[in-house]
Specification:
The structure is a single chain. By secondary structure, this protein is an all-alpha fold. The protein is built from 30 helices and 4 strands. A hairpin with a 6-residue loop joins strand 1 and strand 2. The radius of gyration is 32 Å and the shape is globular. The N terminus is likely disordered.
C-alpha cells in the first residue's frame, strides 16, 4: 500500500481515483457510491415498531435478529433515534458484521442531533480492518477528518493493530510516522501494540529498543526505519503501569530465548506494583518449561495460587505439553483430570495433547474413554487426532476397530488433505493397502479434487504391497481427475519400479519427469543406476550416471562415492 501524507492535515490519501476492493493495492469508490454497493436489497420481514421507544436490550435483540439491509430507512431511523452516545456505542459494538455496522453508523451520522466522536469511528475502523476492507477503511478515515474528529491514541492503536493482523506490518508501523505529524505521542497501550507487532514479526531487539525509547520519553523512529523520532512535551521517564505491557515484554524475551531477561522483567513487574494475571504466569511457566526449568515452572504454579490468581485451562494445557515432551504420562493425566476437578472445561488443545500421549503409549482403553468424554460433552474430535487414533488401532492389530472409528468419526467429515493423507499413511506403513485404498476412495463423494499428497500416499501403499500395475493405473488416472503429478509422485514411482526391476518404464518416467519441468533427485537417479547394475546392464547405468551429471545433479555423500567405485568395477569386469 503506497501511502502519502497530506502536509496540512496529515491525513492519508492516494493520488488516483479509487474503486472498492478487499485488496490494499486497489483503490476505493467515492463515498457517494459506496453504500449501494454493500447493501443487499433482498426483501425480508420488517419488524413492527411501536410508538414507545424500545429499551436498549430489546433494541439489541431486534437488530441482532433482523437483516438491517432489508429495513426501510425510515423504520431503521425510528429504531435508532433518541439514543445517548453511550447507547450508540453499545449498538455499534454489537453489530455482527462490518456491513451492518456501517449501515447503523451512517444512520447515526445522518441524525441532526448526532455529535461525531472518535470512539464511534474507532469501532468502524476496527471492524473494517478486521474484515480487510482497506479502501472502505480509507473512506471513513477521510470522513473522520471531514467531521472534525481528530484521531486519538486509541485510533492509532486500533489502526496499528488491524493492519498488522491483516498482514500489513510495514503499513501498520507507518502509522507511527503519522502520529508524529499530528503531535500525538504514543500512550502505553499504543506503545504496547507496537511492541507486540514487532515481537510477532520476530524483531525482538527492535521491539525492546522501542520500549526502552518510550520509557525515556523519546521514541526513535529510525529504530523501525521511519526516520527521526520525537519527544514528549515534558521531560520525564515513562513507567509501564499495565499488566499487558509486561506480558508482551515477557513473551518477547521468551520467544527470543532470553530466560533471564524474562525473569528480570517479571520481577520488575512485581516490584513496580503491577499485579500479574493468569496470562503473565502462563507465559512465564511456558518459558521456564521450554527452557528445561520444569521445577521452576511448577513453583510458579504454586505462586500463582498463593496470589489467588486462578489457573485457567491454558495453564494446565501448558503443563500437559511440558510433561508430554518428557514422556511423563502420569503428569499429563493428572493435569487433564485437574481441569475438570476445579470446574474448568477441556478445550481442543487439552484433548489433542491427552489423545496424542495415550495413543503413542497404546493405551487403547484410556483413549476410548477420553473420546467418549469428548463426545458426551458435545464436542468433536480434533481432526489432527484422527490419524493418531487410527494408527494406534492399526499398530495394535485392531483393524476392525480402526474401520469402525473411521466410519463413525471420519467418513463424510470435512478433513484437510494433509490429515486425510495421514489416515491413509497409517495403513500404508503397515502394508494394509486395501484399507488405505478404502479410505482413499471413500472420499470420492466429496465435491473437490483430491490433493496430490493423497495420491502420493496411495502410490506408496501400492508400492509397499508390490502392486505395480495398480500404482501405474492410478498414476495414469491422476491427470484425468484434475490432479497432475508432482516431483514427489515421479520420484516415488520411479524408485518403486526400479525395485521391481521395471527399468524401461522407470527410465521412461524419468524422461517424462524432466519434460514436465521437474528436476530428479540424486536418489532417483541412483535407484535407476542401482537397478541397471543389479541386472548386469552396466553400460545403461553409466549412461544414466552421465545423464545425472549433465543435469547438474551431483552425487552426494559417501554412499554416492561408493556407487561410483562400484560402477567402474562392474564395468571393468564386464569388459
Amino acid at each position: 500500500m503506497n501511502l502519502q501524507y497530506l502536509p496540512a492535515s496529515g491525513y492519508l490519501h492516494r493520488r488516483s481515483p479509487v474503486t472498492a476492493s478487499s485488496s490494499p493495492r486497489k483503490l476505493s469508490p467515492p463515498l457517494s457510491s459506496f453504500s449501494p454497493s454493500i447493501i443487499n436489497t433482498t426483501p425480508l420481514s420488517v419488524p413492527k415498531i411501536s410508538s414507545k421507544p424500545p429499551s436498549l436490550p430489546s433494541l439489541l435483540k431486534t437488530l441482532d435478529s433482523t437483516n438491517l439491509q432489508s429495513i426501510p430507512t425510515e423504520t431503521l431511523d425510528s429504531l435508532l433515534s433518541n439514543l445517548t452516545p453511550k447507547e450508540q456505542t453499545v449498538v455499534l459494538k454489537s453489530q455482527r458484521n462490518w456491513r451492518q455496522l456501517l449501515l447503523v453508523f451512517n444512520r447515526f451520522r445522518s441524525q441532526i442531533s448526532y455529535n461525531p466522536n472518535p470512539i464511534h469511528y474507532n469501532i468502524a475502523l476496527r471492524a473494517l480492518g478486521k474484515a480487510k476492507k482497506w479502501d472502505e477503511l480509507r473512506i471513513y478515515w477521510v470522513q473522520m477528518e471531514k467531521d472534525g474528529v481528530f484521531p486519538t491514541n486509541n485510533t492509532y492503536g486500533t489502526l496499528i493493530d488491524v493492519f498488522s493482523k491483516g498482514g500489513l506490518v510495514k503499513e501498520a508501523l507507518l502509522w507511527l510516522k503519522h502520529m508524529k505529524s499530528r503531535g500525538v505521542f504514543p500512550d502505553e497501550v499504543t506503545m504496547n501494540t507496537v511492541v507486540r507487532v514487532l515481537k510477532d514479526s520476530g524483531k525482538f531487539d527492535v521491539g525492546e529498543k522501542f520500549f526502552k525509547s518510550w520509557c525515556r520519553g523519546k521514541i526513535e523512529l529510525d529504530i523501525v526505519d521511519l526516520g527521526s523520532g520525537w519527544e514528549q512535551g515534558f521531560s520525564r521517564e515513562n513507567k509501564p503501569r499495565l499488566a499487558a505491557t509486561y506480558n508482551t515484554l515477557i513473551d518477547l524475551y521468551g520467544k527470543a530465548g532470553r530466560l533471564q531477561d524474562a525473569s528480570d522483567c517479571f520481577k520488575e513487574m512485581l516490584i513496580s506494583g503491577v499485579e500479574p494475571d493468569a496470562f503473565t504466569f502462563n507465559t512465564m511457566i511456558n518459558i521456564c518449561g521450554s527452557c528445561g526449568q520444569l521445577s521452576e515452572a511448577e513453583s510458579l504454579l504454586e505462586k500463582m495460587e498463593e496470589r489467588r490468581i486462578k489457573p485457567d485451562t491454558k495453564t494446565y494445557n501448558i503443563f500437559m505439553s511440558l510433561y508430554a515432551s518428557r514422556g511423563n504420562v502420569d503428569g499429563v493425566l493428572r493435569c487433564y483430570r485437574r481441569i475438570r476437578e476445579i470446574g474448568l472445561r477441556h478445550d481442543v488443545v487439552s484433548s489433542r495433547i491427552i489423545l496424542q500421549v495415550l495413543c503413542e503409549k497404546k493405551m487403547v482403553h484410556d483413549a476410548e474413554n477420553v473420546i467418549a468424554d469428548i463426545m458426551a460433552m458435545g464436542g468433536n474430535i480434533d481432526e489432527q487426532c484422527l490419524p493418531v487414533i487410527i494408527k494406534m488401532y492399526i499398530d495394535e492389530g485392531l483393524l476392525s476397530e480402526a474401520s469402525i472409528f473411521f466410519e463413525k468419526y471420519c467418513f463424510g467429515r470435512e478433513i484437510s488433505s494433509k490429515n486425510y493423507a495421514a489416515l491413509m499413511d497409517a495403513y500404508a506403513e503397515k502394508g494394509c493397502w486395501k484399507e488405505a485404498e478404502d479410505v482413499f476412495y471413500a472420499e470420492m463423494t466429496r465435491e473437490r479434487n483430491k490433493d496430490i499428497i493423497e495420491y502420493n500416499v496411495m502410490l506408496k501403499a501400492y508400492g509397499k504391497a508390490k502392486l505395480y500395475d495398480k500404482a501405474l493405473n492410478l498414476f495414469e488416472s491422476m491427470r484425468n481427475c484434475g490432479t497432475p503429478p508432482d516431483e514427489c509422485t515421479y520420484n516415488t514411482l520411479i524408485q518403486m519400479l526400479c525395485g521391481a526391476e521395471l527399468l524401461d518404464r522407470a527410465t521412461e518416467l524419468l524422461r517424462n519427469m524432466k519434460e514436465a519441468g521437474f528436476r530428479p533427485r540424486c536418489e532417483t537417479f541412483s535407484a535407476i543406476i542401482s537397478g541397471y547394475c543389479h541386472t548386469g546392464f552396466v553400460s545403461g547405468a553409466v549412461e544414466v550416471y552421465q545423464e545425472m551429471k549433465a543435469s547438474g545433479v551431483e552425487p552426494m555423500g559417501k554412499k554416492s562415492l561408493l556407487l561410483q567405485q562400484y560402477l567402474w568395477l562392474r564395468l571393468i569386469i564386464f569388459m
